[in-house]
Amino acid sequence: MSTVVDHTPEREISERFGFLRRSYAMLVKEFIQLKRDRVSFAMIVMLPVMQLMLFGYAINTTPHNLPSAVLLQEDSDLARSVLKALENTAYFRFIYEVHDVDDFDNLLKSGKVLFGVEIPRGFERAVRRGDRPALLVAADATDPVAASSALGSLGTIVQTALKHDLYIGNPPEMPFEIRAHARYNPAAVSSLNIVPGLVGTILTMTMLIFTALSVTREVERGTMESLLSMPIKPVEVMFGKIIPYVLVGFVQAFLIIGIGVGLFGVPVLGNLFLLALLSTLFITTNLSIGYTISTVVQNQLQAMQMSMMFFLPSILLSGFMFPFAGMPAWAQYVGECLPLTHYLRIVRAIMLKGATMQNMRFDALALAALMLVAMIIAVTRFRRTLD
Amino acid sequence: MNGTTGNGIAIDVKGLTKSFGGREVVHDLSMQVKRGSIYGFLGPNGSGKTTTIRILCGLLTPDSGEGTCLGYDIRRDAEKIKRQVGYMTQRFSLYQDLSVRENLEFVARLYGLRDARGAARDMIERLGLSGREEQLAGELSGGWKQRLALGACTLPNPKLLLLDEPTAGVDPKARRDFWNEIHALAADGLTVLVSTHYMDEAERCHEIAYIAYGHLLAHGTVEEVIAKSALTTYTVTGEDLNGLAAELPGKPGVDMVAPFGTSLHVSGRDVAALEASIAPWRDKSGLHWQKSSPSLEDVFIELMGRSRDNFQ
Question: What stretches pass through the bilayer (chain A) (predicted)?
Fold first, then answer.
């Protein structure tokens, strides 16, 4: 039985490329562990898909049958046909018809209706005279997505609807002016902003948690003691633990953007390669931050809590939830320190505006700086002993 | 680069002290371990054995004290020490969700072995784990886990093995095999420091050290430790040993009374006082008294009792 000894052949030990060899050893180990962890593996695919579906459809980009009220100050055929046209768009459903401005205001204020259309006295006569009277459409923009998409398409829809109305004929331009008034939230966020934003938000959440648990897991399973007794350096442990998840993050980003384009019709106007490159940078930054968390906390529960502590401000202060420019100065300063803020600018600009590296270089640099800071903290925080 | 010291000493430390949260776990500990020897580390739970081993392999830094391990300074050259030391932790610390082969390949790669796959394959064969290489380490039985852990420690050809209670919870057959392996490794020139609770294992070491409450109380070969204890032991056999065991403790000169199966060991350092105290029972019919040399266990139990009085 005692066979360990039979001529243990002296295996050659190579001193060259030690850094790469040890990082690679760690990386292979992490990959195998990830592969074995079926639940985590399923999460990699399920999490982004599920979240995108939930977020994506919950913030339905094409709302229908929004409860609306009409303030009718003139009961003319033209007024009726405009209302009909509005209702035909399927955006609006007129559930109230009032004749008093105060009633109109209260309906909006109370939230009973999201839209109000005001047809002023003498509307038809003014149109016939060619005065271009104003048709006021007031929106409750506390739900900015609903408000802005409905408001945005208002003009063309009404014009198309009225085109064949013999009563007016086919005028070269709108016979009246539509004055849209987004109440309560003038800086309405456009719906297209949200799907690209979700790429960043979902990546932040998943990447952070993957690495936030990585070091504490070794400590809790008792494998850290053995790992520390071997000749591996903190930087090598870090790279070994981060790199497998860069690939995981890349797959997730691909999934989310794919679904965004395929299901939600979000365009990618910019360079796809640039998007992939900067997404990888963002993924690595988040992984580094997660890894830093795991070198600070004592156990996996703390790791989860600390990840949430980082995740919440990321959602609230990055410009994902609220327009960045509308935040107070202090919140903007905090926001600038969050990778998600910079990535949101990058991903929105590349996807929606076709931005180039030249446009995005400040945000890319900021991401790289945040990544470096996180890595330096992680490497210095990593305890090489059990003291 | 092999850190050899001329005098053939693998571990040479002086005055090691380590405290955790104000409690001194290791106190002024000095020891020397010869190259190629098997050094047994004994002591009750919480005596500082694990802490000392961790200091030796650079996992803990001592509060004070100095020394060398394989000729490298334990404070400054921890990284160099780690390359040449195999440390087998008390708790199984290989990756439970990695297979036998993957664990060994991981270790081989970390140490920079040129042919990690080959090294792992050879080790699997040598460990007798062929056919189980794809089994997850966490699914192995206790004895196999321990063999695998030893295999992982010896894979990068270390010069010193630090084994922290390697045979705890392992069956006697596996324990015997394990010790045969350790002796064979030592014969090849490897130095082995092994902590244990088992007396039979202590007796298989070339040298032993007894540590309690952070203090090194005795060291040397088994014979030296027994001789230095200056303990006189009487072995009593006969009837009503339980009554005797209840009455003797506390009498002058009686330092220790311990039942061993059907006999009772009565020991003391002061022979005259011991003999005076046991005199009333010496001639009692049904009791047979015999002066014998103390066993290692007698010595340790006595040391443990004494150290408890001194340090607690």
Answer: 39-59, 194-215, 242-266, 272-297, 309-331, 364-382
